[in-house]
Every structure is written in C-alpha cells, then in structure tokens.
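Subject: for your reference before the review

Hello V.,

The reviewers asked for a structural picture of the protein, and I figured it would be easier to keep everything in one thread rather than splitting it across files. Below is the amino acid sequence we used in the manuscript, unchanged from the supplementary table.
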Amino acid sequence: MEQFWQKLTLFAFKRSDDAGEPVSKKIVPENSVITLTPATADFLETFAGSKGGNLFLYQTALTHRSVVHDHEHASPAVQSNQRLEFLGDAVLGLLISDYLFRNFPDSREGELSSNRAKIVNRKSLAGFALTIGLGNHLIIGESADHNKIRSSESALADAFESLIGAIYLDKGLDAAFDFVMKQITEHEDFRNIVAREHNYKSRLIEYTQSHHLQPPSYNVIAEEGAEHEKTFTVAVSVDDRLIGRGTAPRKKDAEQLAAKEAIEWILTNVHTP
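And here is what came back from the structure prediction:
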C-alpha cells in the first residue's frame, strides 16, 4: 500500500489561473505530462472537499488509459484509473449490497444479487456519471478519439467506479457511502433501474441452480485492439458445454452478452429457464 501511495504522489495536479500561470496542488513535478483545465480542477475539488484532500488521487480517477498509451515512455510513468476502478468496483459492490439488504428485507438472495447487478452494470453507472457531467472532465490521450471516449458507457462507468475508489482512499468508507447514496440511491432513475428485468448473468445462474447444474464458467478467449481500445471475447460454458459468446470493451459486459446468448440457446434448445 505504501508503494502505491508513493507512486500516486508522483503525479502532477496543475491548473491554470486567470493570469495563465500554473497553480499547484501538493507537489508538481517539472516533468509532468498532465495539465488540468480550471473547470476540471474545480470539478475535482468538489469531491476532494477540504484543501487536505488528495487531489492526485482524483486526477488519477479521471485519467483514461489512452493517456498511458500516449506517454508510455514518460518519467515518472503515467497511471490510468484502472487500479482505482478495480477498488471502486469492490467498494461500490459492498455499499450497494448493504443498502439492498437493509432496504429490501423481503427480497431473497437471488433477487438481491440481480438488483445489485442491475445497479452496478455499465449502462447504469454511465447514466450516473452523465448526471454529474463526469465525461466532460475525463483526461484523455491526445491520439484518442475524445468525443467517442467522453460518450462511451465503458469509459464513463470505469471513471465513476474509479471516483468511488478515490473517495474511499482519501476520506474513508463513510464518505464513499455518502457519495453512493447521493449519486445512486437518490438518483431519479434508481427505482426504475431496480424494477428492470433481471440481467442475463443472474438469470443463467438461477437456471443452473434450479436444474442442479454446475454454475456458469466464463473464460476470455480473445483480446483484440490497442491497449486503450481493447475488446474482449468471452465464452460461457455450463457443465463443460459452450453455449454462449460475447464481445465488448469490458470483460463484464462481454460476460453479459455471452450469458444473453446462452439464455437464448436454452430457450431455443431446451426450455424456458
């Protein structure tokens, strides 16, 4: 953990004031490759809160992996938000699980799992990110398609989860909880999201459980594209039989597509799950 924080503090957090001179937050290395606009600096400060907030952490949460691709030989090395997205995903899963457990006492385990998946999937998270204007503040590599990335569900969802990870590291679980409650459970579309049809992965799990089969097994069978524009192809098998494939920019979404194809195969070749 100490090494992780040491790496994070190598980043520059720079903004230009009205006079055009850079204003520094914490340490600004001379060889920094990232410069933030005043609007993005202000956006970050709304989540960093007090002046003691670790603004480097929030900057990293907004850094798309295309920046790493453009500056792979920079010193110090640039980091994207992928590590924070990993952490934020886990924190979000815990907080939403806790919320559903406490607020839906009559729901069984399978329904709770399904509702959680509907809330934390790419489409829903991208919607929450759009509400706070997160796409406008993504830090994107110069060679990447900025318009495409700023409207990408995958990029928006990753950044939203990364932001949760940054809040958790900077201010703790209570602050992350407050953010999730405000931006997700109090969102105007939250109840509609929960009311949506169960996601395909949950439906496939329910089918295998009810028919005493082995749980679905997901495997990445192909990765294509540049590092910052990868697509993943995932295959899903049940009882060692491949019954679905899916391709998407994120493994999670590829798994959903594979599960969808599997459900369709079951409906066609077996019976209604």
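For the response letter, the relevant points are probably these. Confidence is low (pLDDT under 50) at residues 1-31. The domain at 2-83+122-185 is CATH 1.10.1520 (Ribonuclease iii, N-terminal Endonuclease Domain; Chain A).

Happy to draft the paragraph if you're swamped.

O.
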